[in-house]
């Protein structure tokens, strides 16, 4: 019986191995093509895998997709990190039981909303609001509205992980700070947050990786043009957005354009896996330091 | 060394003689100034508290705006047609999501069936069988780290894995191609040629297919056949060029075909039709989703098992129970409510997940029923919503909002069950 | 560790005979009263510092302290003793309004420090806690460097130049008798110190903001005997400049290092007086039973 359970556990390692084998194997078809070079892939500023049916015209430079992902993620983090952390501080340091009883389920509900719903919300409400506020300064599909929706999506995650970290700070430290004459603000900002810093950093990293890998919101709201710019008002196809478009386009299996999605996927996997790994390692060390 | 120096130092320890620093004396005596300072600090603190409340309220506000805007957009399409109809390109107004609801539930079922045993088994192994050997401990730690990393892998990557692993199975069993090959079939399918009989009006008999590489047949001689009721009989052939008149008895006409009559391939599948690779089927989709939620199930189960008081386990060992007996009779029953709560939340995640299904099944939504067999393709609610939301037609936009309301209601129902379980667990 | 043991073992012989330094400065107290020169303190033994009258305190509906009246004299070590749950820690935590952070705690009655009404809602808690320092049961240094721990309080309350801050940190650490052990690693993490060193660091942190009163909530209960001895010696020295109120479970400790003792039982004050009297000729039978170790 134990052997069966051990097999279950090892199967989880098998999944990781499977992902890596699959990504490397399939993207080999892409990188091995004569139309693709590593140099172009990493430094090219044009990505036209979907637009050019003719392989000779296709350009495979991942930078536009990366910049799209970066824009959306940066906006999402600008929203999710401060508000998630502040909400976490409020929940762990100040909130009364009654407030908690409202706020916690609210955050859980937001965390449980399917991402496709948030994508729809971005298209239905956030995008038009931005256009209305700026008198048409934004494209109909743009990085900002997708970023805001992704930020909403990451907020509960940042909040609950940070709250865990703040909770792990011993009560004695707070008392020590109050005992020295700290105000509640000083206690939170000068003692509790620094003491929980590595836990909070890990929460940030995990949220970052989540935002980079988010798919449905950007597929709906960020647009379908890969643009290499820092302007958050334009269309911004992201790495995940491109994968979805390629799948949707029913491009012929076997073409270099089709396999380019695996090239993008492996870049996506390396970024998110790296972030998550660092985040988890930081989180572990933090947990050990207070238990 | 240091001991000596200390004992020499101690008598004339300057701590006692040393004067209180000017800084303290000044700060202490300057009462007015320090009160001012503390008043300012308190104001900052109050402002910070206000900021906390405002930001926290913001999340409530966002949720409210989201729900209201979707309700406003979708309420007019919350009709019975929505629940009974299926996607229609020609008549958007009569579109519905019945196949999607069934499809989502079917996928969720497959997903639960595969992810729960695997996930709970892994959790039991990791929590209850902790090795003492240093290398095995490292392996344990590695598996744990790996699981938390898997939880951070984007779901679309799981979709790509599912595409290779379940849909194509790395092409190890041959490729599935329409009208050419259907991979390696295991069971649940009978292949026939369908041949028109003399009875007319589309009446046909089925002739068992012996060579799968031949997509068509031409009847030249009597051979065994199967009728619609599944009875086997000997098929008779009537040659129009011969002198024999065309049989007039309808019963005989049913069993007779014209010489040289052609027939096409026809597959009769049972619900348990099974083949390798799975192709774009709901089985493949369900298994892919189970990969997505597996880390969630494992982590929730681990936490639940960890919260079982060690004294319960010790009591069990104290009675002479073996490790496995303790797990089965003590730890697992105590942890089951928590595990079930986690499992339901994970199912909620699975029902709402669109990206991996999009990858595995493609973006098509044209299907008017739930899955007919294990290898049948399906539409799911999130994919349908994605399709509708991406369509510029206003009717589809409204339909998307209405479908979101249905999806959220189903999720709400599942979460209520989870909350109910959690409460029940607390009371016990 | 060896270093530490020797330190605590050697100090008593040399320092217990109190040599009052001639250059002792004015007290750090906020209410800078000309009569409060610490060199006079032992003579002014009966000047009341904290006055508690008809004091009641609750946690939710549970009454932790019931109609308590007590005067705590200036520049002495007052020990609160009594069995667990008798309200002694609760009282201590009300003296600097530490219980403000416990949502269910509330109180009624009089609690004054000199002429300051501690319980009044208009009292500046930040200011109060600067005057009334607190040392906790478990050493709770912040996860920062040793220097940063001591400098933390002054940085909140005072605007100091770098040199002044350094001087203040050194003074506080010397005062808490931990300077010699940490002077070479002021910027090392405080959590790397031993338990006893950490607790003395916490005392240094508390006195760095210049309090008049030090509250100590079982300051030695988490420490080994050698560290305990070091802290007790420190208390003996510190009372020249500070009014110290200490909660302890350890009767020997109370008798060793306090001048006055108050015995609490079930939320009430049973008896209080000079430590020698309480331990050798208690007025109440319950006190007698307790100090002899018959219960509690």
TrEMBL record, chain B:
This is Phosphate ABC transporter permease PstA. PROSITE patterns: ABC_TM1. It comes from Aporhodopirellula aestuarii. The chain crosses the membrane at residues 48-72, 100-126, 147-170, 281-300, 396-421. It comes from the Bacteria. The keyword Transmembrane applies. Belongs to the binding-protein-dependent transport system permease family. The keyword Membrane applies. It is a multi-pass membrane protein. Keywords: Membrane, Transmembrane, Transmembrane helix, Transport. Residues 101-417 form the ABC transmembrane type-1 domain. SUPFAM superfamilies: MetI-like. It is found in: Cell membrane. Its main location: membrane.
TrEMBL record, chain C:
Residues 1-43 are annotated as: Disordered. The keyword Methyltransferase does not apply. It holds the Pfam family ABC_tran. Keywords: ATP-binding, Nucleotide-binding, Phosphate transport, Transport. Residues 50-291 form the ABC transporter domain. SUPFAM superfamilies: P-loop containing nucleoside triphosphate hydrolases. One of its GO terms (molecular function) is ATP binding. InterPro entries: AAA+_ATPase, ABC_transporter-like_ATP-bd, ABC_transporter-like_CS, P-loop_NTPase, PstB-like. It comes from the Bacteria. Residues 24-42 have a biased composition (Polar residues). This is Phosphate ABC transporter ATP-binding protein PstB. It comes from Aporhodopirellula aestuarii.
